[in-house]
Amino acid sequence: MRNRPPQPSPDDSGRSTRPSAASRRGDRFARLPVLRTVVSVQKRYSELRGNNVAAAVTFQAFVSLFPLLLVIVAVVGLVAAHSHVDVAGKIIGNLGLKGDAATTVRRAVATASRSKAVAGPIGLLGLLWSGLGLVNALQYALNQAWQVEERGIKDKAVGMAWLAGAAVLFVGASAVTAILNWLPGFAAPAGVVVGLAVNFALWLWTFTVLPNTKVGWRSHVIGAACGAVGMEVLKLVGAFYVPRAVAHSSQLYGTFGIVFAVMAWLLFFGRLILYSAIVNVVHHERKVGTVRAVVEVPAQPGVEPTDAVTRSGRVERAELKAG
Fold it and tell me: Per-domain residue ranges for the chain?
């Protein structure tokens, strides 16, 4: 007589406890390396309260736009004052602006043509000041991803070094782009490749220099690649979304609508930075492992010390300590 295969035992309700086909498929998908990484990155993002960190980067990036706009205003004013071309009309047409947004641009160009000499120096100084503010926000986000402390006053010097390196990359990219514009049309894909390469170099430079880590540049390669591709996607989406969102929002909400549209795009940028950094962290942890850290918090009446494995300011192991 052949032995019959073991049958699944029913639970108290009489139903079989064998895993369903959907559950088995979910387990198989969960074991896929890519899906495991996605789940781990999203879990870490939630533990770090990533939306709040990204919002801080968004706000600082938005504030940094104002001195940058002063520089742009100086350049536009210089061109408008010495050109017979309708500069304001060109800008409005290229961005697809209407209503209050179009009126604001025309007034800004007219004002710029009268104050171009003042806006230049002020804008350059303001751009440097706010650039350091943006660097501080980026350092904060990356340090949160790696769960490390700040360097203190050294962060200012690191920020200046990062700005210098980023400026070199931008100047080099502009020179290469100018050369590519002289090439025949069939060489257009080279421009996309150059854009990705420059983005990758900038992201790798950012992840290697700004956070207070000593893990080496190789640990940042995967996140830099994700950031470069994500930035190209944001640029493509932004070229379609931002002009339409600005035009639509300005018609509904006036000047405030323009602010909302720009900040929405910057919020995606802030989240992209944090997600890309967390990708590096997750891959690094899988290679070298993790360590435990004890976080001291103020004692409270009626609260007993407990053990917990959490992150981002939560207690991993609490010990009652007398002051």
Answer: 45-285
